[in-house]
Amino acid sequence: xxxxxxxxxxxxxxxxxxxxxxxxxxxxxxxxxxxxxxxxxxxxxxxxxxxxxxxxxxxxxxxxxxxxxxxxxxxxxxxxxxxxxxxxxxxxxxxxxxxx
Length: 100
Description:
Low-confidence stretches: none
Helix content: 55-70%
Oligomer: single chain
């Protein structure tokens, strides 16, 4: 998602600006700059979280795809579309994509 990447970049730039700009970091926000060891801890845990989340997505995808393909599908199992009429008030919101 390009918008997400832009928001990450803006957030990182602002964080570095706030952390390392004299006057902002000590007078307004009362915080110190991080040293190399602290940055190392941040980067380490960033990769740990990334690896754990990607592994979870892979496992969930494998389980979901496997269950989907192992089921025996018939035409009788097809789900019928919902034909329940919507209330008239729905037309107030513009184009009704749910109408049949």
